[in-house]
Amino acid sequence: MSFDHENKNIYKKGLLIGGFFCTFILKCYVYNSVEHEALQKECEMISNQILQNTIDGLKNIAHVDLFVLDIDGKEVASTSSDVVNVSSAARDFVESPADSQEIQGYQFFKIYDEQSLEYILICTGSGENIYMLGKMIAYQIQTLLVAYKERFDKDNFIKNLLLDNLLLVDIYSRAKKLHIQTDAKRVAMIIESVNGRDNNALEIARTHFGTGTDFVTEVDEDNIIIVKDVTDINKPGEIAKAAEEMQAGLEKEGLSGVRIAYGTVVGEIKEVSRSYKEAKMALDVGKIFFDERKVICYSELGIGRLIYQLPIPLCKMFIKEIFGGKNPDDFDQETLTTIDKFFENSLNVSETSRQLFIHRNTLVYRLDKLQKSTGLDLRVFDDAITFKIALMVVRYMKYMEKFT
Q1: pLDDT beyond 50 at 35
Q2: Which intervals hold domain PucR C-terminal helix-turn-helix (predicted)?
């Protein structure tokens, strides 16, 4: 295939334009929430700023001035102040059946979103070469519209999915339309950071973790949610490792106090909301009973998740029955340390005394003293369980006091 010199230049410009848009569309998929509110206000339409940035870049490649107008002939974006000269002609062009037309030294092109006319692209200049450039630019902008809208639609779909705002039939029909696999193994993760809102945590998370099969979004002002595809992960430990790597990566990016909680793996897209609810509980319960952990899984909560669902009046009644009028916080530090170490060593007297660097008889004396005070002998399994649960209930009550 041969080209004359001028056509070669057009061909090169076409390749540059194509490359420019490939890069730009990829950025749209990890685009941050700076434009998020504008997106919502514009009802899923691409923002004017995006179009302006786009045609500015294209002008540097094609060396022609470009105008993007809406169907009323109003300026959306332009690289020249001469837009007033083409507004009237653009309105007439909208009414015409032609998809492209040369008018008074300008090339006009219609840009559609599906079957709906959305924009008019105008290129300065005339002739076959300008027509070819304009045709390529119009096609690429139309592709950008589709990609950008799909990204927004996916984010909106995932949010409604997490919040249980969709009917079952809508979940599967919309997932199919958005090309989202419905039977992939997924898990919902919640990321919380102390200063996330001030340091663009959502943008950082989208940049690092928002791949084609993983979705990064938010449903409130506090946390980030990642719906992660774990189809290729076979062991639960690998999910924990991935979460730990996320946690370390976000802190490396400057976020502080990052905690990640995640639910159980689900095999159907309709169950993603359940995994999200589990992750929410894991985040709250983790703060109460596992505050030293940066990553916590719902399946690791144990009895903590049962205590978390108890009403406070019932908790107070239980504590009063176990400790009478005595508050567990009144125990001295030596006693509390002894209790924690005894539980840590599965009620083994010898190992506990060794780790506390005390004589076995000294430990027995402390346990006898605690038995006289509470009526519970921690060397007896049933009493030890009751005492452990009581301490967890007290911790839960203290945590809930912060919100009352």
Answers
A1: no
A2: 336-392
What CA–CA distance (Å, rounded) separates 94 from 73?
A: 9
Give residue-wise pLDDT tens across range 67-94. Answer: 999 988 888 888 988 777 788 888 899 9
Calpha distance 370→378 (Å, rounded): 8
pLDDT digits (tens, 9 = 90+) for 255-283: 888 999 999 999 999 999 999 999 999 99
Distance between CA 135 and CA 140 in Å, rounded? 9
Taking a C-beta distance cutoff of 8 angstroms, is the pair 174, 156 a contact? no
Task: Indicate the Cα dihedral angle 154, 155, 160, 161, nearest 10°.
Answer: 60
Residue-number span of the structural domain to which 347 is assigned: 311-403
Q: Are residues 243 and 261 in the same domain?
A: yes
**Whole-number Cα distances in Å, 320 to 11, 333, 382, 385:** 83, 21, 18, 17
Where does the pLDDT of residue 15 fall: very low under 50, low under 70, confident under 90, or very high at 90 and above?
Answer: low
Number of domains in the chain: 3
Give the CB-side neighbour count of residue 264, counting CA atoms within 13 A.
9
What is the per-residue pLDDT for 8? Answer: 56
Q: Is residue 320 one of the residues assigned to a domain?
A: yes
User: CA-CA distance, 213 to 347, in Å (whole number)?
Assistant: 47
Q: Confirm whether 206 is domain-assigned.
A: yes
Note if the pTM is more than 0.85: no
Q: Which of 37-41, 47-51, 301-305 has the lowest mean pLDDT?
A: 37-41
- Lookup: tokens for 204: 């950082």
What confidence tier does 237 reach under pLDDT thresholds 50, 70, 90?
Answer: confident
pLDDT bucket at 22, cuts 50 / 70 / 90:
low
Query: What residues contact residue 182 under an 8 Å CB cut-off, 6+ apart?
Result: 171, 172, 175, 176, 268, 269, 270
**Cα(157)–Cα(269) distance, rounded to whole angstroms?**
11
Residue 227 in this model has a pLDDT that exceeds 90: yes
Specify if 291 maps to a domain.
yes
Contact 116, 128 (CB under 8 A): no
Q: Which of 283, 305, 327 is the last residue of a domain?
A: 305
CA distance 241 to 228: 13
The answer to whether residue 328 sits within a structural domain is: yes
Residue 319 near residue 393, CB atoms below 8 Å: yes
Q: How far apart are CA 236 and CA 285, in angstroms?
A: 20
